[in-house]
């Protein structure tokens, strides 16, 4: 069993939306990304890598080098706990080379614990509107190794 990572493009918007949708609870899916009930995750000005596990799409990460920030890192639930997310994070860390930040919904305890177990610390907590409701977020930060 192996994880392979390739560069992602805008042609992966629907694939990444499918992975994100599978990994999130329904209320955490950004409504602005839904098109005819299909989640399309626009690449915009991000960079993207896509992970495959045994040649099956398993996860992705959208990030911005200049900001040292991960916008999205999602792993298909069927491929969680087999190293896909860790491989994505390691790959992005090698590209960013500096501190990395990521924002996580406070109610996503699984993701928060995952990042904390990989050396991230809590940098900030704030509330903002998300899908029409006040929502608590954490900004996590990790120094480069």
Secondary-structure blueprint:
Elements: E1 3-7, H1 13-23, E2 34-35, E3 38-39, E4 47-53, E5 56-64, E6 69-75, H2 84-96, E7 100-105, H3 109-116, E8 121-130, E9 133-142
Parallel strand pairs: 6-7
Antiparallel strand pairs: 1-4, 2-3, 4-5, 5-6, 7-9, 8-9
Please provide a written account of the structure:
The protein has 145 residues and is an alpha+beta fold. It has one domain (3-142): Gcn5-related N-acetyltransferase (GNAT) (Aminopeptidase). Helix content is 22%, strand content 40%. A seven-stranded mixed β-sheet has the order 1-4-5-6-7-9-8.
CATH class type: Alpha Beta
CATH architecture heading: 3-Layer(aba) Sandwich
Q: How confident is the prediction overall: mean pLDDT?
A: 92
Give the topology string: H per helix, E per strand: EHEEEEEHEHEE
User: How many helices?
Assistant: 3
End-to-end Cα distance? 27 Å
Approximately how much beta-strand content do the residues carry?
Answer: 35-45%
The strand order across the widest sheet is 1-4-5-6-7-9-8
Q: What is the helical fraction, as a range of percent?
A: 10-25%
Question: Could you give me the name of the CATH homologous superfamily?
Answer: Gcn5-related N-acetyltransferase (GNAT)
Q: List how many beta strands DSSP finds.
A: 9
For the biggest sheet, the summary is: 7 strands, mixed
Summarize the structure.
The chain is an alpha+beta fold. The chain has three helices and nine strands; from the N terminus they run βαβββββαβαββ. The chain has a single domain (3-142), classed as Gcn5-related N-acetyltransferase (GNAT) (Aminopeptidase).
